[in-house]
Every structure is written in C-alpha cells, then in structure tokens.
Amino acid sequence: MTQHSHSHPAGFKGFFYEIFVPHSHDAADSIDDAMEAHSEGIRALKISLVLMLGTTVVQAVIVTFSGSVALLADTIHNLSDALTAVPLWIAFVLSRRVATRKYTYGFNRAEDLAGLFIVLMIALSSIVAAYEAIDRMINPRPMDNIGWVIAAGVIGFLGNEAVAVYRIRVGKKIGSAALVADGVHARTDGFTSLAVVVGGIGVVLGFPLADPIVGLLISAMIAVLLIGTVRSVGRRLMDGIEPELVDRAEHALQHLAEVESVESVRLRWVGHRLHGDALVRTSATSLAEADHLAEDAEAAVKKRMPNVDEMTVRVMANVR
Questions:
Q1: Each residue of 9-53: pLDDT tens digit?
Q2: SS3 annotation, the chain
Q3: If we measure between CA atoms, which residue out of 42, 122, 131 comes closest to residue 89?
Q4: How confident is the model at residue 279, as a pLDDT?
Q5: What is the mean pLDDT of the chain?
Q6: Phi, psi of 308, rounded to the nearest 5 degrees
Q7: What parts of the sequence cross the membrane (predicted)?
Q8: Model pLDDT, residue 1
Q9: For residue 290, is pLDDT > 90?
Q10: Is the pLDDT of residue 6 over 50?
Q11: Which pTM does this prediction carry?
Q12: Residue 190 confidence (pLDDT) above 60
C-alpha cells in the first residue's frame, strides 16, 4: 500500500485534528457495493436520530425547571444535530435511484448538498446559542436545580459521543464526507455538554455568570470547529480528492506489466462513491491488445479501491 502523500498535524494538535476533522478516505478499503453502502448509511442515521432525540428530550425537560441558558444552548444544538439526520437520510434514499435522462450521473450529489445543509445548521446553532447567552448576561435570571443541570450535561456528552463515534465510523467506512461531518457535529455537541457541566459547577461555587459565559464559549467553540467541516464539505463540492487515493489508483495501474507509464489519473467523489479516468502508455502494437489492457486496468483499480463505481482508462499505444 502506498503511503499518504499529504501529512496531518502531529502531537497535541494532531490529536485534536483527528477528533474534530476526521477524513473519510479509508473507504477505499471497505464496502464495494453501492447499495450496501447506502443501506449502512441509512441505518446509521436511523439509530443516531433515535439516540439524539432521546438525549434532547431529557435535556429539554431539565431546561424547563432549571432555567440554565448554557443547557438551553446545548439542547438547541442537540436538536439541530438530530434534525440534520433528516436531509442526509433523504439524500441517501435519493442516491439509490437509478440515473435518468435528465440526471445521467444519478443522484449521489444529493449527499454533498446535505453536507452543505449540515454546515449551515451548525452555523445557525452557534448564532442561536450566542444570542441566548448574551441575553442572559444582560437580563440575569436565577438558575435552579443545578444538580440536574450538571447531570443533563453529562447525559448530553455521553449521548452525543456515542452518536459521533458511530456516524464517523460508518462515514469513514462508506466514504461519506457528509456523514462524517454529521458525526463531527455530534462530537462538538458532546463537548459543549461538558461545558454545561463546568457552568453548573461555577454557579454552585458562587459565580452566577458562569452559566451564560459558558453558553457564549459554547457558541465560539462551535464556530471555530466549523472551519474544518466547511473545508471537508467544500472540498467535495469542488471535486477535491484526497491525494493518497490518487496515489493508490496510480499504484494499481503501474503494477500492470503492459503499462509503461501512467500519464494522468483523475478521481472525484460523487456522494460516497468514486468516479474517475486515467491515461496510460503501453508498447502494445494492436487495437485488441490496447482494448484488453484498458479492461485490465479498470479491473485493477476497482480491485484496489472497491468503492470506485466508474473508471475509464484510455490507452496510448504504438498501434500500426
């Protein structure tokens, strides 16, 4: 297997980079059937949606009798996270549809549009959380049942982290940047829930402003972490590709004895599936040999990268 041709941050920074900006190129080693990938993605969304709605309901009940603005901000964010599963679910269902004369490449791009919607929802939740925190600073209100608020924060963290791990794992497995982004969204919710715990402890220690201050910090943290998700989803929309996937395709082509050189390789994500083309040079002297090589080359790439749906290989030969 070829090594990654681009580097990731190392050390402490790399640890947080992998937590909050995971990438999905590992899919090249996993599911090779498009329908199976769609089904696994939908199953992940169903399970995580139920978990997130349950977490949100518990937190909303505690908000009503505690008056915690930090917990309210966290609950709003958790609700937005749960709702982002709906458009992504629709996108996975659309991806199952066969191509038509109007949409000749199929409907897999719906998944990338859902990823953009998720980015917008994360941004909106950050704005709402900031507004509520600032309002509570200007118009202070007492916070009751602090023990329950702290418990709700812990519940929020556990629920969100479980959903995040599941979504990111499945997203990486099937190559879905949108599902990975949704997992990152859940993970930010989890850490903001821990911030609610900190705010509650601050109030217990005699610092009432700790609650709205933490609510404001939550919105700021969401905005900062949004940058990595924007890059990931934006790269997909711009047909960006992880360089190591190009390396892997080139490696598969170069190992064919008939290939003298690989002139170019292009890949792009369409939803969570890969499409691409390549140009190779050979010393073949007949059209039959060139055609046979093109078929072998396509098969070699698909074997090496199971989630490649389409690979068109052109052959430059010394045909007489």
A1: 544 444 444 444 454 444 444 444 555 666 777 788 888 888 888
A2: CCCCCCCCCCHHHHHHHHHHCCCCHHHHHCCCCHHHHHHHHHHHHHHHHHHHHHHHHHHHHHHHHHCCHHHHHHHHHHHHHHHHHHHHHHHHHHHCCCCCCCCCCCCCHHHHHHHHHHHHHHHHHHHHHHHHHHHHHHCCCCCCCHHHHHHHHHHHHHHHHHHHHHHHHHHHHHCCHHHHHHHHHHHHHHHHHHHHHHHHHHHHCCCCCHHHHHHHHHHHHHHHHHHHHHHHHHHHHCCCCCHHHHHHHHHHHHCCCCEEEEEEEEEEEECCEEEEEEEEEECCCCHHHHHHHHHHHHHHHHHHCCCEEEEEEEEECCCC
A3: 42
A4: 93
A5: 77
A6: -80, 115
A7: 49-70, 76-94, 114-134, 146-168, 189-207, 213-230
A8: 38
A9: no
A10: no
A11: 0.62
A12: yes
Does 82 have pLDDT greater than 70? yes
How many degrees, rounded to 5, is the angle at CA 251 between CA 248 and CA 254?
155
- The length of the chain in residues reads 320
Nearest partner of 116 among 38, 178, 64, judged by Cα = 178
- As a whole number of angstroms, the distance between CA 86 and CA 88 comes to 5
Is the alpha carbon torsion for 58, 60, 61, 67 positive or negative? positive
Burial 284-308 (b: 16+ CB within 10 A, else e): beeeebbeebbebbbebbbebbebb
> What is the rounded distance in angstroms from the CA atom of residue 42 to the CA atom of residue 91?
9
Could you give the CA distance from residue 309 to residue 36 in angstroms, rounded to a whole number?
13
Query: Residue 278 pairs with which residues in a beta bridge?
Result: 265, 313
Among candidates 245, 305, 279, 288, which has minimal Cα distance to 32? 305
For residue 49, the Cα-to-chain-centroid distance in whole angstroms is: 15
Q: Which residue has the tokens 């964010």?
A: 77
Domains and CATH numbers, the chain: 23-237 (1.20.1510.10), 243-316 (3.30.70.1350)
